[in-house]
Amino acid sequence: MVDEKNNQNQRQNQRKADDDMINLVDNLNRSEDLRFNRRAFLKSAVGASLTLGIATLPFSIKAMMDDREEDSEKVEIGKLSELPKGESLEFHYPTDSEPALLVHTKNGELKAYNNKCTHLQCPVFYEKKEEVLLCPCHRGFFNVDSGQPMAGPPQRELPKILLEVKGDVVYAVGREVRHG
To answer: Superkingdom, according to UniProt (predicted)?
Structure first.
């Protein structure tokens, strides 16, 4: 009688265990399991990386070609004989939307900077009397020899424009942004 009771309990337990196993595997779908496995993920990641790399290739080539063009960019500013010592001349460099200022100092040196104040982009003017570059918006002063801020709110120096003089003509040949 005890053996028969034990056998009956074992059969019930086995049936429950089989039912539980069926419940555990009911949520598995073979097609979804194959679609979302690690290998499929890696294939997708490699494919996306290759697609992005190929898609950005034309932009990379253009960027490399633009660097070469920038090196050869040379813009005529004006004639040195028409700019007396202690005077300044406004021009645009490297594009028409970038105002710049050429200063012929009292010592006879030529200095050029972008003339947007590094504080709030107000125009900067040459003060002949004091030999400084002045931003009138917030009374910022820059050293005309270095473009470094001397007083006022500006904390960074003005971008310097590299010059070349051939004969009587002054050219802008490059720009040096020193504060990064």
So the answer is: Bacteria
DSSP collapsed to 3 states, 88-100: EEEEECCCCCCEE
> How crowded is residue 53: how many other Cβ atoms within 10 Å of its Cβ?
10
- Alpha carbon 111 to its chain centroid, in Å, reads 27
Residues ≥6 apart with Cβ < 8 Å to 76: 169, 170, 171
Q: CA geometry: angle at 59 spanning 75 and 49, to 5°?
A: 160
Note the Cα 173 to chain centre separation in Å.
Answer: 23
Contact (CB, 8 A) for 91 and 102: yes
110 sits in the region (left: phi over 0; alpha: psi -120 to 50; else beta) called beta
CATH number for the domain whose boundaries are 75-176: 2.102.10.10
Listed as ranges, residues in the chain with pLDDT below 70 are 1, 20-28, 30, 33-35, 67-72, 179-180
> Considering all CA atoms of the chain, what is the largest pairwise distance in Å, rounded to the nearest integer?
126
pLDDT, tens digit (0-9, with 9 covering 90-100), for 57-108: 988 888 887 765 555 588 999 999 999 999 999 999 888 889 999 999 998 9
